[in-house]
């Protein structure tokens, strides 16, 4: 397959640093050649021990560094649009962390920009599509042995939220994963959303509406509910149960060591996404590198990123209004027709 794929990583925070480590130590076929972060010291720390990496304070300078052939965007969501457009202008393939772009207008601009390029360049980092349990559930549902899925019951809990986390982010950052997973698992679009707000946990930061209960309707008549609770304090728990006409299937129960002693059993619970989804991130980035080297784009598309942004935005309106909000997607360009293939 020739030379290693030279990757520029934009953003060297929690995810960016983990992806840099992954590209360096886990994934084959690629190497980090440039990193951009306005916090240059943080970027330098993330590449400590690596050689030949150009560290820049701004994204465009990193994209223009020698050897860059692909881009991994791990900056905060609001910075993604500019980074995606800069990558498209250079014809560079991209893996962009979720959310693709937090607002639907910006997300549509990305759809239009990629459509103008005329070929797919970007994969969106909805890594649950690479999680072994989610994949088993998807193939079970696709196989049809349980009949038509009627409902998905989802749980999304974090130990604690970052300091700047807002009530809207429970929907447009955390639940963006369930939005994508539900669309992917069911092969249906989400058409309406309602958000219920129980009395906030006294352990949540003041003013944060946490937890929330989000209910989606789909164009196939299914219902998807999500308990999202980002300051639960006790563990990182992501579960999904599909209830179908002739059976149910549940994923996400902890499958770690169970210690029984003194008349009680104790099971370990992951404390964050980097542990719970470690293998999924590894598979996602390896699949992106492999597809890029083959000249293909696989995984969640820019259209999936756009759909997720539109649904999440409707969810934030539902949270604010307390009512049911319907979702309207723009017409899907032919570029995103599943029959259009995956070549760049
Ligand atoms: N897939 C997942 O499970 C998952 C998990 C966590 C975060 N994320 C996503 O990853 C992205 C980054 O999140 P994080 O938790 O690493 O955030 P973070 O705050 O830890 O790191 C972000 C970094 O980006 C830098 N930055 C800010 N503006 C930038 C710009 N214009 N160009 C380059 N760098 C810039 C910041 O200085 C910071 O170092 C977000 O989109 C987030 O939603 C995804
Ligand atoms: O950005 C993070 C990330 O996407 C995690 O996977 C999710 O569990 C968190 O809720 C979210 O804040």
From TrEMBL:
Record-annotated Gfo/Idh/MocA-like oxidoreductase N-terminal domain positions: 6-121
Domain (Gfo/Idh/MocA-like oxidoreductase C-terminal) ranges: 138-327
Keywords assigned: NAD, Oxidoreductase
Signal peptide as annotated in the record: none
Taxonomic lineage of the native organism: Bacteria, Bacillati, Actinomycetota, Actinomycetes, Kitasatosporales
UniProt name for this protein: Inositol 2-dehydrogenase
SUPFAM superfamilies membership: Glyceraldehyde-3-phosphate dehydrogenase-like, C-terminal domain, NAD(P)-binding Rossmann-fold domains
Enzyme Commission no: 1.1.1.18
Quaternary structure, from the entry: Homotetramer.
Function recorded in the entry: Involved in the oxidation of myo-inositol (MI) to 2-keto-myo-inositol (2KMI or 2-inosose).
Cross-referenced Pfam families: GFO_IDH_MocA, GFO_IDH_MocA_C
Catalysed reactions, as listed in the record: myo-inositol + NAD(+) = scyllo-inosose + NADH + H(+)
InterPro entries hit by this protein: Gfo-Idh-MocA_inositol_DH, Gfo/Idh/MocA-like_OxRdtase_C, Gfo/Idh/MocA-like_OxRdtase_N, MI/DCI_dehydrogenase, NAD(P)-bd_dom_sf
HAMAP family: IolG (MF_01671)
Stated family: Belongs to the Gfo/Idh/MocA family.
Organism for this UniProt entry: Streptomyces camelliae
């Amino acid at each position: 397959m020739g030379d290693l794929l030279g990757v520029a990583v934009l953003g060297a925070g929690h995810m960016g640093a983990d992806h840099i480590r992954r590209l360096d130590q886990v994934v084959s076929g690629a190497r980090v050649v440039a990193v951009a972060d306005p916090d240059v010291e943080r970027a330098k720390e993330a590449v400590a021990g690596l050689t030949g990496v150009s560290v820049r304070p701004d994204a465009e300078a990193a994209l223009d560094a020698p050897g860059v052939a692909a881009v991994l965007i791990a900056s905060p969501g609001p910075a993604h649009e500019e980074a995606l457009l800069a990558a498209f202008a250079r014809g560079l393939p991209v893996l962009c962390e979720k959310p693709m772009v937090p607002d639907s207008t910006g997300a549509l601009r990305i759809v239009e920009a990629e459509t103008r390029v005329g070929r797919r360049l970007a994969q969106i980092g909805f890594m649950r599509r690479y999680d072994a349990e989610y994949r088993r559930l998807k193939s079970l549902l696709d196989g049809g042995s349980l009949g038509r899925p009627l409902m998905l019951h989802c749980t999304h809990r974090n130990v604690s939220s970052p300091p700047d986390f807002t009530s809207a982010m429970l929907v447009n950052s955390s639940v963006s994963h369930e939005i994508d997973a539900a669309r992917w698992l069911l092969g249906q679009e989400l058409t309406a959303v309602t958000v219920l707000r129980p009395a906030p946990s006294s352990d949540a930061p003041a003013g944060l509406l946490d937890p929330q209960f989000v209910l989606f309707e789909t164009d196939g008549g299914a219902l998807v509910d999500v308990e999202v609770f980002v300051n639960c304090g006790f563990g990182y728990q992501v579960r999904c149960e599909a209830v179908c006409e002739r059976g149910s299937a549940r994923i996400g129960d902890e499958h770690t060591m169970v210690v029984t002693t003194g008349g009680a059993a104790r099971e370990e619970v992951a404390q964050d996404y980097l542990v719970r989804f470690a293998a999924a991130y590894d598979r996602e980035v390896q699949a992106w590198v492999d597809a890029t080297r083959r000249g293909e784009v696989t995984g969640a598309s820019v259209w999936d990123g756009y759909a997720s942004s539109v649904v999440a935005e409707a969810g934030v309106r539902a949270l604010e209004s307390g009512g049911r909000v319907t979702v309207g997607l723009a017409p899907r360009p032919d570029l995103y027709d599943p029959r259009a293939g995956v070549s760049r």
